[in-house]
Amino acid sequence: MAFKTRKKEDFSYSSPQEMYQDNKFKKIMGPLDYQAAMLNLYIKNADKKTVALELPTGSGKTLVGLLIGEYRRRKNKEKVLFLCPTNQLVHQVVEQANLKYGLRAIAFCGKQKDYLPKDKSSFLMAEAIGVTTYSSFFALHSFFDDVDILIMDDVHSCEDYIISNWTIQIDSGNTVFLEIAELLKPFISETDYKYLLEDEYIPEVTSWCNMLPMPLIMEKLDELQTILQQGLEAGSSNYYAYSRISENLQECNIYIANRKLLIRPWIAPTMSFEAFAGAKQRVLMSATLGRSGELERITGIEKICRLPIVNDWDKKGLGRKFFTFPDLSLGEEEQGNVVMALQNLCKKSVFLVPDSQSAEAIRQFYAEHIGSTKVFEAKDIEESKQLFVDAQEATVILANRFDGIDFSDDESRLLFIWNLPKTTNLQERFLITRMGASKLYAERIRTRIIQAVGRCSRNPSDYSIVCVIGDTIQNDLTKPEKIKQFAPELRAEIQFGLENSVDYSSVDDVIEQARDFLERNQVWQGAEEYIVDLRNGYWNEENKVEKQINEKLQESAIQELKFQYALWKKDYKTAYEHACSIVGILNAPALNGYKCFWNYMAGCMAYYLLKNGQVEYKTAGIQYLSDALKENISIRWLSGLPEKLFSIESRIVEDDDLFFECIERIESIFTSIPTTQKLEKRIKGILDDLNSLDGKVFERGHKELGKLLGFISENPNSTGAPDPYWIINENNIVVSEDKIYEEKGQVKGVPISDVSEAGRHQAWIVENEKRISKGANIYTVLITNSTSIDEDARIYAGNIYYVHREEYVCWAIKALTVIRSVWHMFVDEGDMEWRESVHQQFIKAGITPKDYLDFVCRKNLRDI
């Protein structure tokens, strides 16, 4: 066999564009003008250690990233690795590189031992671009431990993929779950322990989450270490994550939710991972560079050179989306009919759903109602979507995915978004719903939504229908203050969709507009001109308040990174100083919820220093924890924490009027009410029901009133069960007996049978209601249109309160008037500034939960 020789490649190209122009294997021309402009901008900054490129969804960022990688590979013989969130996207990038762009790329998926020797050699000799997942790159003993150039795709959505390498997530199916739950039991409330273990589906329990103060369990850390060491399955993701954080367990946070435990650092300490820190260059490709420090928090990188959008991409947008919101005008019962009609019209669709259970429900729906449509799931198209593309009628269901496979042009003209969740992990959920720090995640959530709605419009000439069903992200797409935050083009598309969706009278209206859009006919041309006019009107708008908030969050992010790395090194003094700086930066009312979190973190650092013998930090630690409590009295474990940690007498601050027990539920209800018309319909329904002479109808209004006011409101139908009861918290519950007697002549007095029935409700509640504590205050009230009681019944009425129906309706009108007012001010869940404003209005009107207790307990039944 003769020796093989090869002439050295003569690389004389001055730019990626020039190099690509000479590529004889490419099947598409390019790059386009805006892609070329971004590449030019990159070349001017090619010497920077970390460069972030803003490349909106659908702008062809894969080609830009691959050309940068190919240019570096060929010019400098550098090893280039292209990172994607999922295996699906790895295969998609490799397919596009090899078949469309004529660039050699190799997919590295699965176990490292299964990588082909030939592929490994090609990558290591810089003969091809490697493409793999974030998880594979950050894995322990990774094959990719000496990479020159990292191209990081979809950075805006990769936080979970990065932090997972430092995260232990344990659910109830894991053998160590119950052991850890038992270990934590002394440090959490009775209710939190119940909610942690509850296996029955209860909405309030499912949405609950909390954080366990790490300083409280420091003396139990050795036991926790033992449980994790012995119980985590060898080779599992938790096993490898534990090996990374085992020496820093004290520097992590523990979050709890229903049948879930999460242990993780605040930010992924990526710079402690040598392969990441040692790369010659990291190229971040993101749909948004953000203005609030999101890139820094997601990647753990402090210094990032940002290359913003060029040529007004953000203002003009790419492709066209026709938004339809059938829930705004049609009832929930029409959702299935809308799905069937649009599917039959378009034949191909993509369905984004929140979880695997929802995916199964949609699959069953298609099987029962649209049997001719072939249903694909994510795993079916992991390596290639060709089977979906080739099908005549098909849908692909993607669970809990904002990022995902592209479906351009005729591959799919229809996208369904059904109850897609805004948060993707427990830390986000806790900070938003419990801490009231929604401002922190506003940009991240907005970017996720932009990603989701753009799955089927992937180039300048592409177009798709976006049908939004359910209420999880609907609030973000309907509230004026939220819509203003989107780029002008998308904002105009959303606004146009809203204006048309509120007038639907039937499913036929939806289909008529969808057909005009797909046909691109004369009717649609008028709509197109209107959308462009809307967009042009939004171009120069600026929200100065939002800009100031984002500047503070951006400044805070840099300090947060310094805090994280100091903490990871157990340098508590430096970490404390950075936490104090963060508290000072977050000096705006809108950031009080987030400021509360950092007051708590500063207090923890002071406690760690005290434990290390530095007693001078005691006073400061007490002050920071006290300040945290002032900003958020709804986090109950903050009350009394200075006493537990610093051994002082501490006045436990209570939520005296119990308002903060209900505010999260009010926000959840408000999120599900998208329009004034829906709100007014709901209020009118409640008042009509409360004025009804039909007792069952009155009960319905009674229950709905409680829900709208943020109580856990139930009206069970089982034998012997009470009428509506409202749970304020685990310690306070109001249970009622509603008796509306026929008003023929004089209303009779309350008979002994009804008094006895009301008297049995407390026993039923104790026996059947899992969401209250053993010693809960149970207030029994009889609501009736009667003004008297049978004499024989008085002896049994001693522990029952009395409210006349007319008084109750008057109180309801007062409360609903305030609800109407604060709904119009509502923008998003977890807005601490809004919560405080609502609190003051509830106090002024006298409708706090404590006011309600005072109202229903004013008069004893036996005294009427």
Helix content: 40-55%
Tally of DSSP β-strands: 22
- Count of alpha/pi helices: 38
Mean pLDDT across the residues is 91
Distance between the termini: 111 Å
What this model shows, in words?
The chain has 864 residues and is α/β, with parallel strands linked by helices. It is built from 38 helices and 22 strands. The strands form four sheets. Strands 3-4-2-5-10-1-11 form a seven-stranded parallel beta sheet. The protein has a six-stranded parallel beta sheet with strand order 12-17-16-13-15-14. A five-stranded mixed beta sheet has the order 18-19-20-21-22, with helices on both faces. A hairpin with a 2-residue loop joins strand 19 and strand 20. Helix 28 packs antiparallel against helix 29 (618-631). The longest helix has 25 residues, at 544-568. The model has no long low-confidence stretch (mean pLDDT 91).
Layout of SSEs?
Layout: H1 16-21, H2 33-44, E1 50-54, H3 61-76, E2 80-84, H4 87-100, E3 105-107, H5 117-124, E4 129-133, H6 134-138, E5 149-152, H7 159-163, E6 168-171, H8 177-184, H9 190-197, H10 203-207, E7 209-212, H11 221-231, H12 237-245, E8 253-257, E9 260-264, H13 274-277, E10 281-286, H14 294-299, E11 305-307, H15 313-316, E12 320-324, H16 335-346, E13 348-353, H17 356-369, E14 374-377, H18 386-390, E15 394-399, E16 414-418, H19 426-434, H20 438-453, E17 463-469, H21 474-478, H22 480-483, H23 488-501, H24 507-519, H25 522-538, H26 544-568, H27 572-585, H28 592-611, H29 618-631, H30 641-646, H31 663-671, H32 676-690, H33 695-708, E18 712-714, E19 725-729, E20 732-739, H34 752-759, H35 761-768, E21 777-784, E22 800-804, H36 805-825, H37 832-845, H38 849-856
Parallel strand pairs: 1-10, 1-11, 2-4, 2-5, 3-4, 5-10, 12-17, 13-15, 13-16, 14-15, 16-17, 20-21, 21-22
Antiparallel strand pairs: 6-9, 7-8, 8-9, 18-19, 19-20
